[in-house]
Amino acid sequence: MQRITLGDVSIDSIVERSGPWRTPEAMFPAFEPQSGRRHLQQLGPAHYDAGSNRLCIAYRTFVVRAPGRTMLIDTCTGEDKGYGPPLDFPKAPWLEGFRALGLRFEDIDYVFSTHLHIDHCGWNTRLAGGRWVPTFPRAKYVFYRQEYEFWQAATARGDDPPGQVWKMNCEPVVAAGQAELVDADWSLDDMVTLTPTPGHTPFHCCVNIASRGQRAAVIGDLVHHALQCREPDWSTVFCADPVEATRSRRAFLGRAAAEGTWLLPVHFPAPAAGRVRAEGERFRWESA
Ligand SMILES: [Zn+2]
Questions:
Q1: How many Cβ atoms are within 10 Å of 33's Cβ, its own excluded?
Q2: What would the pLDDT profile of 6-15 be if each residue is shown by its tens digit?
């Protein structure tokens, strides 16, 4: 993605994987072929591979840099987690992308995940001597308390699918003393704030970034695909509460359209960043 600059802040991203992925029918239970295909055709080949009827989906980490502070938001699937296909991505592209931005692990000051699904907190930890340790030795890992506790409880009950995500990616960070569990009023120098956007997970949060009157937001899985700007009521099969996800999506996109906020969704293909324009009940995605 091309760099976004807001006042004193620059935002880049690191891509772990990008390309045709699931079919729209498999992704959206409410998918309606006639209007769905029309929207996909209008979005074009960057968003939809018509030949294979697959949505183009990326997995990415956003890197937010302000003077004296570097923050990662959402850390992809990571390395050595033992995930089976299709989530057994090679680790080289992410590491190369990280280094291409001139970063070393010790340069990261803050890490935050919009939610604690498998593809949003993977690089939180890495294997060292057979143990999971925080990848970024100096970073403070900020967790939204309710999201953290939800997955902690799910793990304790034995239903944290698919396999020990919280145990590998979150618990070791707390054990190392690098975690801070925060509430919705948390802010970093008034530059980074949170907006709870429940539905995809019960405590999913978007991350607002503001500098010198300009705004952006990392929106995680509030929107998985640009098709959902045209059909905001279509939640994915991965959303815990599809109705609540729709409510959060409509509210957040409506405000972003009114305020001209840059939106940074985790799963959109390049250039990833864009704005939405309101058109009645729908939104139009406009890439950067
Ligand atoms: Zn995701």
A1: 9
A2: 999 999 999 9
